[in-house]
Amino acid sequence: MNVIKSKQFYVILSLVCAVAMLLMSTTFQSMAYWGEGLTWFWVGVSCTYLLWLMGIVFLAVAITKRTDLNPKLSIGVSIMGIVSFILLLCGFGWTTFIIIFGLSGL
Predict the structure, then answer these.
(1) Do the beta carbons of residue 95 and residue 52 sit within 8 Å?
(2) Whole-number mean pLDDT of the chain?
(3) pTM, whole model, 2 decimals?
């Protein structure tokens, strides 16, 4: 079986993007102080949302793939997909929260 075309590969990529997004969402807060203005802040926000989009695309590709997996592997891949979706959703919400409340001055 070709590893790159497998469902597991795309789920793992989605999970990696979700974790990287959560790490990046905490990093871009400090990027606001890197220079004059908010240029680096918005660069960090753009990178964070790009990771979110990549994670969603990888998860969508994994969901649409039809493969015959053994039952134990299928359950594991499903759990990883659910965890990835939850992390992507939380990361998106947290990033949006930081933008809204950070720029409003609260």
Answers:
(1) yes
(2) 86
(3) 0.85
